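[job 4471] stage=fold_predict status=RUNNING
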Amino acid sequence: MNLKKTFGKRLKILRIQRGMTQFELAEAVGIDEKHLSHIETGRSFPKANLIEKFLDILNIDLNTLFDFPIEINRNILVDKINEILKTVSDEDLNKIYRLMDFFVRR
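[job 4471] inference complete, writing structure tokens
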């Protein structure tokens, strides 16, 4: 995962959801529109104080801003799940199976 690009895409989505242009958000947080463009395209990453301004202006919390999917290759994910399952008791394995079955088949 490229954190700068993923963060930038997430920020852009949240900005658009709030009906703001790049110019409006940049002006509201006190930066140049070009700087915001660089953040949204992943060419730069904002400092903590700027992230705090984004949170305030977009009226969101930190979890919302950083709520983006972690891109993991399917095979790697299956291997990681199998490694975890090898360490659980038979009783817990049965519980996990029932939960998985419920969520997959519903």
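[job 4471] summary: Residues 74-105 form one domain.
[job 4471] exit 0
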